[in-house]
């Protein structure tokens, strides 16, 4: 299997201990996901959980008027299916693939059987759920208090962290709904970033040219979320080395060339570095 599609490219799978991985790996199914695929419907039964590798998945809340509002987004840092180990078996929102790519699918019953062994997987998934709750809270605060430009930079940086490329598929209307502003506000903010050579935007498609440029104009919320990720996923323990040999703590895929020669995940790696000690202590 190509290294880029190894299970270890998903952070949660990379954190599994050897015994857990060997019990679950025969049931991990690599699947291709296309943009627009619906994995869960509102109040739909969750028969599978998904561990993205190169795909990103949006969890949307459906409004009475037919509109949608994004609650959260999942990429190679996590998994889709948190309600299963929080006591439910149905999805509160609709899960839609936003960026095409690959994910590993695992039967919900198989995951829960391992969860109820009350071993390291239980602790890992509960840590992940805690971080997800913090991320949703931070998103609400960000959309209430920060400028459109800052929110757009945050969104683009977070998408880079969850993606296998610096090419992002999204319309200005979609992004406006996610960051809580009108389409015209996204247009103005995107134009400002494009004029400074930070991004290139054409209809439905964004290319990030300078990650450091985005980081220079983002609000503090991006670093707060990165710190939470450091708490969730400190440096890979030796027990997981069997998955892929050497694995970077960022969990990122191979580096992509930006105009300022920054690596794909440098932003989160830098933001998390000063918190590595706290991260290791927090989960002892």
From TrEMBL:
It comes from the Bacteria. PROSITE patterns: HTH_CRP_2. Keywords: DNA-binding, Transcription, Transcription regulation. This is Crp/Fnr family transcriptional regulator. Residues 146-212 form the HTH crp-type domain. The keyword Nuclease does not apply. Transmembrane segments: none annotated. InterPro entries: cNMP-bd_dom (IPR000595), cNMP-bd_dom_sf (IPR018490), Env_Response_Regulators (IPR050397), HTH_CRP (IPR012318), RmlC-like_jellyroll (IPR014710), WH-like_DNA-bd_sf (IPR036388), WH_DNA-bd_sf (IPR036390). Pfam families: HTH_Crp_2 (PF13545). It comes from Massilia aquatica. The keyword Transcription regulation applies.
